[in-house]
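Inputs:
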Amino acid sequence: MKRSFSPVAVGVAPVLLALLVTSLIIIIAGAQPLEVFLAIINGSFGTAIKISDTFVVWVSLAICSAGLLVTFRAGQWNIGVEGQIVLGAIGAVWATRLFEGGAPALVISTMLLLGMIAGALWGVLVGLLKIYGGVNEIFGGLGLNFVATSMTIYLISGPWKPEGTSSVSASKLLPNEIWLPTLEGLRVSPVSIVLALIVIVLVFLALRGTIWGLELKAVGQNDRSAFVLGVPTQRILLSAYTVCGICAGLVGAILVAGVRHQLVVNISAGYGFFSILIVLLSGFTAVWSPLIAFFFAALGIGGTALRLGLDLDSSLSGVLQGVLVVSFELVQGIRQKWFGGDN
Amino acid sequence: MKVTLSHIHKRFGAVHANNDISINVEGGTIFGLLGENGAGKSTLMKVLSGFFAADSGEIKLNDQVVSLSSPADALEKGIGMLHQDPLDVPPMRLLENFMMGVRGFLQPRRTAESSFRELCQAFDFDLDPHAFVHDLSVGERQQLEIVRLLWLGVETLILDEPTTGISAPQKEKLFATLHQLAADGKSIIFVSHKLEDVEVLCSEVAVLRQGVLVGQQNAPIDPAGLVKMMFVQEVNLEERLNVDLGSTFLQVQDATMSDLRLKMEGVTLDVKAGEVIGLAGLEGSGQQLLMQACAGLHRIDKGAIVVGGQTLSGRPYQEWLNAGVAFMPADRMAEGLVPGLSIAEHHVLTRYRRDQEQDKKTIDWPLFRKHSQEKITEFNIKGFVDSTVESLSGGNQQRALLSLLPKKLRLLIMEHPTRGLDIESVLYIWGKLLKRRQDGTAIIFSSADLDEVFQYSDRIVVCFGGQITAVLNTSETSVEQLGYLIAGKQPPADLREENV
């Protein structure tokens, strides 16, 4: 059986399938599908503020998926990415406490730096557990995610509890000077967009043009062969976790410095898990994942408009995201199982 | 149950794995199926147990023509296969494992447990239904599998190399069980390459070689006749290149090595620069373990391995590579090449790591595609720089592996370097290898093809049951003599005198 779909069909079919399924759900929920889709588009692109909000989310998703491309290339399911974001945020807040009252530029750079280091350490821990402890990275990562969340709760309710309040949901709000500078009247920081673009380009180049990128791929495809051919497979694995941890840590730091300006319990907001879906949807490519990340960001922001405009739950856009991923995997799976297509 | 296979053909690409094979197994008998690895035994048995369909031919059970669409289907028709031990077992209790394959909705725990105990008692197996499967020895797992298949109503039992990896008492018990089953009217097919097992157990033996049924014997079995059928072929010894051997390069000193199935003790071997050592032996006799240890891929338990004057045993694999050791595995796609990567990507990987360009970090793709194209031309690989390695044929994969070998090579270790390859590739590959030899590279290889062993080795090392049982000079050895040694027997006196 040599029949196979054209690439266009492979790309379009899942989207149509996802729209169909979501439409059904919307109808069941008692609304007009077209109205809902328009509301989502309007809610994410309708005004300059909304577009900028979409970009705020995009920065997190894009950087995080760039990092995940690296671990996926090495054949690793880095579920722990969510916790690595949290550690990045903790590192960033810690930096503000270390350098309280310092020059804003210095404090902000230290926040980003410490965030990346903390994220990297949390990532490497998953790799070490896997290599030396035989702990599957999925379980190791999942476990560390819970530890990271608990650490946040402990810090917020204990040592980093804001003075004079009984609040246990957030640490002290950071002073204005050490917020990442934003455009007038908008929430998005150009600095974060530039950082995201740098990370995307670096990861793209590293995967495509460096020996390291090729070694990652070899380890991911068949680590035994790669080892026999002389690739230091353990070091390569650890480096992949380090890089992904750095990216996730950077996301955490940006969330603190540019978005939330304090440590909150659910600071990672599921961005890590969404990024895993994004990378899956992109077919593990550095070109497509930032674009799909943008689409996901728009859905997320647009979804919040649903409740305001149509009195529907904002989780509908989450349904669309989830159904889209499942449809994509389904079309891929059917193609491979029944039509003998490769990839 | 009487099982009749007639004119079975099965091809895998260019390989004719089963070529017009017909056998007949009567109920109440133990039928031996003998042959070297790759002779087509497993293929034939997988056809009979429903794993895949024959290209042509007929299967009859009690003179009724049947078609077997899947293992479950075959099981329903009374054919059960005991596979060579599955090593990855989930943490499952014996009783749960016992119930695998039962049709229906609810687990019949009560009846299962009482049947389990009855069957174990009938065969004198000491198995606890509430123990865990992964705590069992290979022999006990076999016992479990036998009672499971019997409970499912199997009338014909196929055993694939069942005596590998089990202890002597367990083997005795297994044989007693098989005799008992045959006495109950079941038909048993015993697949093996072990002469001594077939000799004591089977009432009829068929020998396969390269996909063809080459002979059959009824009990009493004449082992010398079987050895001839299994191994002896026309041997045309070409003029052999005489190479001046250098000093000793590899020394294995009283080494002990073990894996899950096998323990080799007191292994001692010296290999000189430029020397070619052929490892002969039945599959699973220790050649693989020995080669992996000499390549630095398997850590030895005791003793030492000295490479070029340096003790490398216990050192990281990278140091072995630096010392000029290279390994070419039998399973090319699992241990040699990386599926999904192109030929050029393989060249980049090995070139940067092994040759002098380790300081470079980025890849100059145009330059490397040119290098890769040169290698493809030099090694006559039928493929392109961007071809993924899995798209190549077996012979071309092997050529690709050869093209990855480093320039400075002192010791090359190869498992079955030409298995499954066409004759043109075989000659080409050995041509390349012998050139390496003239540069002082020592070669250790294993092969199930005795012609190949005789043709290319200076010395032949025979492994049997985890021991090196003989080290022979090729020029002073006959194929027949080797056949006996491989089967774990001493050659008859007249044969020995003839050749000494």
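Chain A is about 75% helix and 0% strand. Flag for discussion at group meeting.
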